[in-house]
Amino acid sequence: MKETHQATPTPIGTRQRRRKSGQTVILVGLLLVVIVGAVLYSQRTGILSLLTGSSSPQTNASPATLNLPNGFHVNIFAQNVSSPRFITFSPDGTLFATERGSGNIIALPDAQHNGKASEKRVIASGLNDPTSLVFYKDALYVGEASQVTRFTFDTQWKVTDKQVIVPNLLTGGNHVTRTVLVGPDGNLYVSMGSTCNVCNETDAKRATVQVYRLDSSGGRLYTKGLRNAVGMAINPWNQQIWVTNNGRDLLGDDVPPETLLTLQDLLSCIVLMKHKFR
């Protein structure tokens, strides 16, 4: 007679312990994945630098040293200003600034002429990330993230008129600030940076400077190939428009070197080249 062997049933308690052990292993594994992911995310810039062969900028937490020429000194002019970006002087000599943190335009008058702001006065509020501003013929032009707005004032710096003169500017991407300048020709120049660090743009208005008439008509491309022309100013000696151009990131503090350029009208260059090869 053939013997048959029956499997001994596993006690319920043993099965429950095994199930709990399996769940513990899964939880520990998930926790490790989260920890490793967090570490990798926190070191993403360094990892990217290693993968691309670039060097990551070195940061120094100690206070920077400001070196001044002989005969110059520095002091705090105004405090408690929310992320100021650009400053300019009004026709009467009052310092104006944009506050990106609050969406305000502020005036910082120096009533005592002692090198310190006597007050912080909100001139305009509720703006969409105002970054740059410039006075021209008693009007203030402000570059916002999506538009350029013109303000006029009374003698007490109260707004008498507010008009969006260039609406629907491109938004988003890595470079969202819009620098404005009224040139020596009386036209409005607007800088729009690239969407990325290094890439080929799909929109022809990116990485450019556009030019408009002050009535917002005639908008066109003026110069292209500027990754992020943040600063624009007029050279008072020859009336050229100069711009700074912020080079690509993730190559260290000194590579590539930042550049200062004179703007050239692309349309004029095209006309000159056309006649040159006739």
Would you mind describing this structure in some detail?
This protein has helices at residues 12-42, 44-52, 266-276; strands spanning 84-89, 95-99, 104-108, 121-124, 132-136, 139-143, 148-153, 159-166, 178-182, 188-192, 208-212, 220-224, 232-234, 241-245, 259-262. It is an alpha+beta fold and 278 residues long. It has a domain at 170-276. The strands form four sheets. The chain has a four-stranded antiparallel sheet with strand order 1-2-3-4, with no helix packed on it. Strands 5-6-7-8 form a four-stranded antiparallel sheet, with no helix packed on it. The chain contains three helices and 15 strands. Strand 11 (208-212) and strand 12 form a beta hairpin.
Give a brief description.
This protein has 278 residues and is an alpha+beta fold. The protein has 3 helices and 15 strands. It has a domain at 170-276.
Please identify the structural class as seen in this structure.
alpha+beta
Q: What is the C-alpha radius of gyration, as a whole number of Å?
A: 29 Å
pLDDT < 50 stretches? 49-59, 268-278
Total helical segments: 3
- Strand line-up in the sheet with most strands: 1-2-3-4
Shape category: globular
Report how far apart the termini are.
113 Å
Q: State the helical fraction.
A: 10-25%
Q: Roughly what fraction of the amino acids lie in strands? A: 25-35%
Helix and strand element order: HHEEEEEEEEEEEEEEEH
Give the rounded overall mean pLDDT: 79
Number of strands: 15
What about the largest sheet?
4 strands, antiparallel
